[in-house]
């Protein structure tokens, strides 16, 4: 296979796998599936199956990050220079549409309907309070608790002051 790229065996061994992928795509002038591309690369480098499996994710990441490559969807890879910028954007979008049904409905319409329904609620009815209900004055309950807490705090302070005075007297002696 190294003959297909017109490279010597030593050159193939020293060349990075991502560069081999680029050379292969450049020479074939057509997109290739990653698995097929990777299989050819590992065969060119005479890699064992376990060595190939150890490197498969790393090479995929390198191809993905390398600006020379473009994913055309369904794990089909080509060279970015083959496509116009507009075509690149369209192919990226079309690859996405193939797997998911796009919802063309405006999702904000539902929110608007809910707001309209909310506005239609009879605010008078919501704010009506039965006159039979007794109002509980919560503030009075808290005020009593607050007085008790203040008194307990004052007592604690008085005790501490007395202890401190005793200690001061001991120090003066």
TrEMBL record:
One of its GO terms (biological process) is DNA-templated transcription. Keywords: DNA-directed RNA polymerase, Nucleotidyltransferase, Transcription, Transferase. The keyword Nucleotidyltransferase applies. Residues 103-122, 129-173 have a biased composition (Acidic residues). GO terms for cellular component: DNA-directed RNA polymerase complex. The keyword Nucleotidyltransferase applies. GO terms for molecular function: DNA-directed RNA polymerase activity. InterPro entries: Asxl_HARE-HTH, RNAP_delta_N_dom_sf, RpoE. Residues 90-173 are annotated as: Disordered. Residues 15-82 form the HTH HARE-type domain. Signal peptide: none annotated. Belongs to the RpoE family. RNAP is composed of a core of 2 alpha, a beta and a beta' subunits. The core is associated with a delta subunit and one of several sigma factors. NCBIfam families: RNAP_delt_lowGC. Participates in both the initiation and recycling phases of transcription. In the presence of the delta subunit, RNAP displays an increased specificity of transcription, a decreased affinity for nucleic acids, and an increased efficiency of RNA synthesis because of enhanced recycling. This is Probable DNA-directed RNA polymerase subunit delta. The lineage of its organism: Bacteria, Bacillati, Bacillota, Bacilli, Bacillales.
């Amino acid at each position: 296979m190294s003959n297909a790229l017109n490279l010597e065996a030593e050159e193939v061994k020293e060349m990075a796998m991502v560069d081999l992928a680029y050379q292969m795509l450049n020479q074939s002038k057509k997109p290739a599936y990653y698995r097929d591309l990777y299989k050819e690369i590992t065969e060119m480098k005479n890699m064992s199956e376990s060595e190939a499996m150890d490197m498969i994710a790393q090479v995929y990441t390198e191809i993905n990050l390398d600006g020379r490559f473009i994913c055309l969807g369904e794990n089909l890879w080509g060279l970015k220079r083959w496509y116009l910028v507009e075509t690149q954007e369209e192919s990226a979008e079309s690859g996405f549409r193939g797997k998911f049904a796009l919802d063309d409905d405006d999702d904000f319409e539902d929110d608007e309907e809910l707001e309209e329904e909310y506005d239609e609620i009879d605010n008078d009815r919501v704010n009506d309070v039965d006159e039979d209900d007794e109002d509980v004055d919560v503030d009075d309950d808290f005020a009593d608790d607050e007085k008790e807490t203040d008194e307990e705090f004052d007592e604690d302070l008085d005790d501490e002051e007395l202890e401190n005075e005793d200690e001061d007297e001991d120090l003066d002696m």
